[in-house]
Amino acid sequence: MHTLKYLLRHLFSVALFTFALTALSYAQEHKSQDGQLKQLQENLKNDYFSFGLLVQGLADFQPERMAGYNGFKASKGRFKISGIFDNQFGYNLQATMLKSPSILDANVYYKPTVNFSIKGGIFKSPFTHEYLTGAGSILFASRSTVVNQLGTKRQVGFQIDTYTSEKTFRFTGGIFNGNNYSGNSNDDNKFLYVGRIESYLGDDSNQTKLGVSIAHETKDAPGAGNLSTGYIGKQTLLTTYASLTQNKLLLDGEFIHGWRNPDVGPDSNPYGYYFTAGYLVTDSSRLLIRWDAFEGDNLTQDTEQILVGFNHTPNSFTKLKLNYVLPTNDSIEYSNFLAILQVGF
C-alpha cells in the first residue's frame, strides 16, 4: 500500500506539471506564432549566418531509485551557428552551456556539386540512425540503450557524403581519430573507419528509409571504448535500421551488433536493438511505444524496458515529451516518469 501511494503521488506530480506546461503552450495564438516564426527566420537565419537555440527542462521522478535524485533540471542548453558561402563552402559550430567540453560540433565542409560534400572537424560520425537524429527531434526523452552503449558518437575526422541524382541512395564514409571528441589529437595513432549506405523510398508522408553501417577500429589507449576502460584490441560494429512513415503511422527500429577482440581476455559480442511504433492522434500529438533491449555479454548490465510516450508540438518553437519507462526485469517500483519541455528554433 505504501508503494502504491508513493507511485500515485509521483504520477500526480508529473500530471500536474504536464497540465501546467500544456496550458501555457496553448495560451498563444496561432497567427501570432506564425508571425513570430517568420520574423525570427528573417532576423536570425540566412545563407551566410544562421543562429539556432535548443533549451530543454526535464522533470524526472521514480518511486525507487538506484541512482540519481527525483526533481527537475536543465537537460539541454545549446546554441548553433552555421552558414554557407557561394553554395559551396560551409561551417557549423554547436556548443552547450551545461557540460564540459562545451564544444559539440566545429567543422567546415566543401560542396563542389549539389550531391557531394567533404567535411572535416568535430561532428557526429555516420553510424547509428538514432544518434544522427538531432537532440530536439528524437522521439523519447533520451536515446536507446544500445545507441548510448555502442554508438561511435561524435568524433574528430574527415568524411565524404554523396547522393544519387534522384536522392534515393546515399553513401557516407569517414576516417576518425576514434577517441570521441574529448581532444583534438589522436592518442594512439589508430583510426576509426565508418561507412554507411542508406536508401529513401516514397515522399514525406509515405516514406521508407533503410540503412546499414559498419565501423571498425583498433584501440590502443587506456580509457578508449564506450563499454569498458583500458580496452586494447580490435572492435567491429554493424548496425541496420528501418523506418516507415505511412500517413499517421510510424514504425522505426535499429539493431546494433559488436565484435570485440581484446589483446588480453576473452572476445565478446555485445548487441542490442529497439523497435518503436507511433501514431499521430492529432496533427500536433503523437502516441509512442518502444521495446528497448541490450545484451552486454558480461561487459555491462543487460537491460530490457518498455517505453510509452506522448509528444505534443503546439507550435514551431515548443515541444512537450512525456515518457513512462517500465523495466521488464525489475519491479514496477523502479518505473521512471519523465517530462520534457523544449524550446528551440
UniProtKB/TrEMBL annotation:
Keywords: Signal. The keyword DNA damage does not apply. Pfam families: Porin_O_P. The keyword Iron does not apply. SUPFAM superfamilies: Porins (SSF56935). Residues 1-27 form the signal peptide. It comes from the Bacteria. This is OprO/OprP family phosphate-selective porin. It comes from Fodinibius salicampi.
